[in-house]
Protein: DUF1993 domain-containing protein
Amino acid sequence: MSFHDSASPAFLQMLGALSDILRKAEAHASARKIAPETLLTARLYPDMLPLTRQIQIACDFAVKTCARLSGSEVPSTPDTEKTFDELQQRIAKATDYVRKLPPDKFDGAEDREITFPAGRDQTMTLKGQQYLSHFALPNFYFHATTAYDILRHNGVELGKRDFMGVK
Structure:
């Protein structure tokens, strides 16, 4: 299996699932006359990031991971989304970016040295395989799962198939 096939499909599946669960969340809020901001700013615990930030970070991990693995310039995206529509646009842009990267740009990525920010004023360097398997994918799934959990905790009717993006 190519390195592209190890990365891109996983990101695309979950970005699609995040888009779908956001649609369900928006419909849930509308049907129950809940202000959208109630869900968009919801957190699982006071010291955790809100739903909007979880979506932004998940999108960033998909885009930035694929950029780094493909040897492309890492795009910068300001975190300005405050509505369901704006988050859907962010997901759509991330999906488009990941989908458009040519598979051959990932050739040799498993051995490529990947240097990335790791906290304030710190960087970390890992080989591509380690970066994808031990850092990028776990972080991506953490934020996607947390977004799902926030919505589920707030009464949005979601199940495992929604999380997995299976229709």
